[in-house]
Amino acid sequence: MKKILLTALLFCFIVAEDEFFEPATSLGGYGEMHFDMEANDGDGKLDFHRFIFYIKHQFSPQWSMMSEIEIEHNMVGSEAALGYKGGYVAMEQAHLNYWNGTWGWKGGVLLVPAGITNEYHEPPTFMSVERPEYNKYIIPTTWFDNGFAFYGKMGDFNLNATFTGDLVGDDIGKGIRSARKKGHYSTASNWTKTFQGSWTGMAGLKVGGSITMNDAPVSDDHVNGGEAIGVNLAEFNATYSANNMYARFEYGTITYTNNMHDLEGDDGVADYEVESSSGYYLDLGYDIAGLIGCGDDTNLYLWMRTSAYNKDDNDDAKEITLFGVMYKPMNNISFKFETGTAGDDDVMRVVFHLASELIMMFEGSVQIQKLNDLIKSGKAYDVFVKMIEAHGGSLKAFENKKYNEPLFRYSIKSNSDGYIQSFQTRRIGEILSHIGAGTLNNSDGIDDYAGLAVYKKISDSVSKGEPVMDFYCSSERKINNLNLIVNDIFQVSDEKCSESILIY
Asked: What is the pTM of this model?
């Protein structure tokens, strides 16, 4: 997971204010380009991720108008016109603002003041190439909607009360990211209410938090019978940036009421409830620019991040560790590099469950935490090594990454945009037997190079032309013949279904 970012934050404020105030217009914006070195099977991907254009007009010392337009992925248009899924354009902010120096009011298209990144999402304001992954699922960015806000300051305290349109209850599942209406004919049956506060009484330190509440309406045919889904989001954050040190911490949790789902997908009976989501991230960095003789206006941060989030607290959390460098030749320009790892929670969930079931057969109950400790301590690996040696196996062969490296590959790609609805697992198993990963007859041998890599799960989004799975084997003939038997082994739908159950 290696990514590089080049971004420039451009401001050209020309507001003039004196005793003979004259209205003035300010222009600004930013752009960011990403290079993902490990995308596209290692071939890399260059993406001009987004370009934002600001327009601000100051009518008087108290009254102003602010707007922000975002264009993502360089090209915007229909799939029919472009030949692929196009980019995205949105009015992320457009509001009238009144501020008298102590309190203010604004109304229009507003950013929801939940968390740190949603309001301050310009790339030079955070360390990583992408916005923290935790924010995608717990406090999504960018989260905006139509509404109004009252805000003010009392000494070192800043207060904000924002009221925006409802979330879309039908799109609430494990998280609220898909439930953002984004000002597109928003409803206001309950209003999304956000109350935020922060303290800045110490140089370089900002401590804050917020609470967001909404009873999200649903359609009449929803599994909940039309009853709204309650959402309560609470978060705490702290940022320290002074004395060459940088630290940022944010923790958020969402509790739901009546967030019911139909596991079977066709009986209309709600038999599973998502009760909560939660997550955090911690960034630590140090500016070494002064140590190596860079200019006074230059920053060179070495930083690391530890993060974990859980879209459904009934599941295991996804853990992320990142290390990176951010170089800022001036305040509003940054170059970034990062690398790191993300834990595969799905695999570990299955491993832990199977291991606990086996141990219960012989020794009674066992805690998942004990299994996790055995794996992290290395004791489980030591036993695995002993098993290899006891069976006459070669540990060198096991540790050699090129051992049994696949010779031929056949990639199965999606023919349309949408969500993975189902897999024909029996047919996939038969195909694997055909290419040598299993046997059709007792006399058949096993091809050590044969196998399958699956990149999507049920309910995952997929784009046209995006790989869903790859088949591997040592026979070029068998690989070339797969185009005759791999049709319709998975289905894509326009509607997102419930996530599949990994463990029964």
From this structure: 0.67
